[in-house]
Amino acid sequence: MMKKIKIALIPGDGIGPEVVEQGVKVLHAIERMDQGLSFTFETFPWGCEYYLEKGIMMDANGIDLLQKFDAIYLGAVGYPGVPDHISLWDLLLKIRKSFDQYVNLRPVTLLHPSFTPLKKRSEKDIDMLVIRENSEGEYAGAGEWLFKGKPEEVVLQTGVFSRKGTERIIRFAYEEARKSQRTLTSISKANALNYSMVFWDEVFEEVGKEYPDVTTFSYLVDAASLYFVSDPGRFEVVVTSNLFGDILTDIGAAITGGLGLATGANINPEREFPSMFEPVHGSAPDIAGQGIANPLAAIWSVSQMMDFFDEKEWSEKILATISSIILETDNLTPDLGGKATTNEVGDRFIEILSRAT
């Protein structure tokens, strides 16, 4: 039977529409090559530029509109004149929380030694999956602003770590480590955060008793940040909180070639709601419209989408094609040392992918 996948497109701001266009081209190419797959798309114009025009980041019934889709493909959000907390809370976090996308998957994989600023590191030295808690923690939005504007002004930002939220992300990570036969490292900060991170560490140990076959490690986030740079090979599967995951994965991007190659998936594992796939390089409004945006992170997120829908063969073929195209300097965008346009990279990518089938 043909598998039909309905995808909501939110191209967003800046270079978002340019890179999403290339990802959609790849999906159309897969559809032509695989008669068992069919994709349908609907585009929503939401984002910061929409906010400047309409005063809202997304329509009031936006969540209801997205509910009917199997996946959301997001380009980028951010634009001068719109505060970051508005763009984050009124679109990205609203989608993540409404659809219980509590798993954030961020691969930190070096595709070519020339891309890393680290000395004498090869592909085998930097290859990990960071699993970030994506629904609560430090980004729960809990807190209070007291006596605003007065000398005694106090701001409280509360991290929320529920038993349900903490256990399910840690269990997901254990399952991934077991399935892939890799080590699992938990990253926290229990020496300073004497409630939330002590609790995190205790849950990590409790759940670990059910997975005696998984080799585990536990680091404080400051030490882990150092090791991400000095010894990244010690990490295979990593699980951590919302804030720490956000920071550590940007370090991961820095050691693997920059944000132009960084991708992320926001997953609802139970598939009760749509999951969301996105490059995480931001909207880069300074280069928007110039045709030089790197689309490889957006295409990588298509690989994550295929993996989520159990199309592992296509997921692997996309990753293999990324590994192939990065060897063709002339067919890369300027950020990777090439002179190709965004469209030219997408077209060449499809040529290589077609040969692999």
UniProtKB/TrEMBL annotation:
Its cofactor is Mg(2+); Mn(2+). Belongs to the isocitrate and isopropylmalate dehydrogenases family. NCBIfam families: TTC (TIGR02089). The keyword NAD applies. Keywords: Manganese, Metal-binding, NAD, Oxidoreductase. This is D-malate dehydrogenase (decarboxylating). Residues 6-349 form the Isopropylmalate dehydrogenase-like domain. It comes from Virgibacillus halodenitrificans (Bacillus halodenitrificans). Its EC number is 1.1.1.83. Pfam families: Iso_dh (PF00180). It catalyses: (R)-malate + NAD(+) = pyruvate + CO2 + NADH. SMART domains: Iso_dh. GO terms for molecular function: tartrate dehydrogenase activity.
